[in-house]
Amino acid sequence: MAVRQPVLDESAVRDQGGRVDLVVVAEMVAPGSRVLDVGSGDGALLELLATTRNCDARGIELSREGVNAGVARGLAIIQGDADVDLAHYPDDAFDYVILSQTLQATRRPRWVLEQMLRIGRRAVVSFPNFGHWRSRLDLMINGRMPVTDNMPIAWYETPNIHFCTIRDFVALVEVLDARIEKAVALDSSGHRVRVNMPWWVWNLLGEQAVFLLTRER
């Protein structure tokens, strides 16, 4: 008898104060896929992929604390630096390579995305949108770097070094000669922004975004 996989419940995650973007990312991954999660933290996404998508999922994480937490949960996580270690993986080693809320903390975001599209048939990227209206308002009225739920650490302590907007990311995808298969923007409440709106509207209303990419062949 087949074991029934738990259902991805976006509303429940939102109500519990969890990261809705992880549910959106998991939805973009086909069941049974081989997945590498870059910047996997404590393994929350890996666990979600294993339990709801039956994926062969493993992670690479810079912090020793994150690695220890993930391994303690029985997950396959190794310590590594995305800005260096992705070069060691062979072409097409995974079906999906994921970078969740980590792009802005990399030193070489373009290189990291290039490597993701090389070693994975598809790449899934989520990131906070610095072009969101609240961030713009903070800069305009207060003249200070914004602190939000998705960017909660002051500028002098944050690990984030390459903030970008949704429009910036779309422009980078064009530079990489990659293709956007799917994209989702989430507002400040974790609800999806209507998909039929143009990029500039998403850039204004989306507090974070999730993109599914594939390289042009």
Describe this protein's structure.
The chain is an alpha/beta fold. It contains nine helices and seven strands, in the order H-H-E-H-E-H-E-H-E-H-E-H-H-E-H-E. Helix 6 links the parallel strand 4 (94-100) and strand 5 (120-128). It is globular, with a radius of gyration of 17 Å. This is Methionine biosynthesis protein MetW. It holds the Pfam family MetW. InterPro entries: Methionine_synth_MetW (IPR010743), SAM-dependent_MTases_sf (IPR029063).
Break the fold down into its secondary structure elements and pairings.
Elements: H1 10-15, H2 20-27, E1 34-38, H3 44-52, E2 56-61, H4 64-72, E3 76-79, H5 82-85, E4 94-100, H6 109-119, E5 120-128, H7 133-142, H8 166-175, E6 178-186, H9 199-205, E7 208-215
Parallel strand pairs: 1-2, 1-4, 2-3, 4-5
Antiparallel strand pairs: 5-7, 6-7
Beta fraction of the residues?
15-25%
* Tally of DSSP β-strands: 7
Give the terminus-to-terminus CA distance. 40 Å
Low-confidence stretches: none
InterPro entries: Methionine_synth_MetW (IPR010743), SAM-dependent_MTases_sf (IPR029063)
Organism: Xanthobacter aminoxidans
Pfam family, one: MetW
Protein name: Methionine biosynthesis protein MetW
